Each structure stands twice: as structure tokens, then as C-alpha cells.
Amino acid sequence: MKIYTFTAILLLSLSLVGCKNDPAPKAAAKAEPKAEPKAAPKGAPKGAPKGAPKGAPKAAPTVAPTVAPETTTEINYEDPEALNNWIDTILAGVSYVAKKLGRNALPIPDFYLPITPPLLGLTIGGTMFKTSLSGFDTLHRLGSGTLESDASTMTAYISFVVGLADTGLNGTLGVSFLNLGVNISGTLGHVNANVVIRALVRSTGEAYATLNFLSVTDVGGLSLTITGLGPVLNPMAESIGHLIFLAARCPILNAVEKALNETITLMLNDKKLLGGKVAELLG
Known about the structure:
Helix content is 24%, strand content 35%. The chain is of the alpha+beta class and 283 residues long. It has a single domain, classed as Bactericidal permeability-increasing protein, domain 1. Strands 1, 2, 3, 4, 5, 6, 7 and 8 form an eight-stranded antiparallel beta sheet that branches. Residues 25-67 are annotated as: Disordered.
């Protein structure tokens, strides 16, 4: 059996447009005032008032920030290491929860890719099935996090970027009209996402945190090994590799976003772990 190895190093941040399944935010009710607030929390998406920072995520959060903008001020965190340690504690818990739930290998929904254009009314295509993305436990912080806090409401927004590194991609390609057992294996160099967590201490003293925003922004750096193509498709191995990468980007993005949303939310619901951490964060 001939083995063909195909390597592609590509950044698909621009190609992720159209992968999102989230519905657009609903329009504001007519009774709401039209005036824009003067400033927005750091985690607010682009399109927010001018007070939003340059690094804010572009897409709208699913939960709108409730901090009064005019009273929101950025804390000059004298010890950024403390904030980063707080974030790392959350991410370590996310990896642990993912393992416990069996999510270290994320299943990717089956997807179709056309291999040849129609020829005499016949199109050779393939379906990727039994596909999975492993390495969810490589979740880690990229760069330093930022904090914006409103002392009057005891609320903080913690913004940071997370990444998965060198995750494994495995699957089987079924090709129409050809009885082939094509196996696909490889690694993804990186999968990055923007995250905003909202931390709050109620007047009762209860501390909690919620996931305010999460969006996968970049998928790239693919190395593929394709085996079992046979003499007919071997000459097309490079093209098939590109097709797999392009067809897989949206299923991968959606699977990672879903897993991160669910796992981080479960982690943040652990009040025993986070109660003291939130209070510590807000001083």
C-alpha cells in the first residue's frame, strides 16, 4: 500500500467566515433609549462605543454586559501575574473537566468533499466519517489577560485568548464508486479563541463567574498523512489534502466552540472552587 504524505501550513482566520451557527442578536426593543453609552467593558465586541479596546472580540456576546458604562474604570493591575494565574486556574480545571467527560477527543460531524468535477454526469466525491480531534487537554492561555472592573457593582470582565496546540486529527474517507479504505491522520498547529468571563460578587457576599463571550478566531497549520488512495487517486493526493482542510475547518470550529462553551460553563458552575477566587480577583 502506497503512503502519500501531504503537508499544508495555512492560516484560515479569513476563511472562517460563514462557519458560525449562532443566530444574529435580536434587535433592541423600541422602548429602549437610542443613546449609546459612553464606554464599554473590555470584553465588548467591535461596534460597541468608542471606549472598547482594540483587542476586543468582533462578534457580539450572547450575554450583554450589564455594568453601568459611566462607572466602569480599568484597574491598573499592579501584579498581572496574579490575573494570569487566576485564568490558568480556570483553564486547568477546564482540561480536567474535559477529560472526566471524555471530551479530550472531540467527535467531528461527517462532512462531504467533492473530489472531481462532474464527468459524463458522474462526480467522484468523498465523505469523511469517524473523524475526531484529540488534544483538548492542550488548552492554554496565549499572552496576558486583561481585567476591567466596576467597584460600585463588584463586577469584573476578564478577557484573554486561549489556544489548542498540535491537536490530532483522525478520520476515514469513503470515496464514491471506489471500494477504498482511505485513512486520514494529522495534526493541527493551532486553534485559537477569544474568551471573556464575567465575575461578580452579589450584595449577599455570594461570588460567581459566567462565560460572557467565546469565539474561535483562527484554525491553521495542518499536516496530513493520507493512506490507501490507490493508483487512481494517488496523483490527486495534494488536491484531496487541500479539500479536506477546507471542508473540515467549519466542523472543527463548531465542535471546538461547542466543547469550550460547555466545558468552561461547567467549570464556572463549580462554586466551591470559584467562590474564593472571584472574591480574591475583585479584592
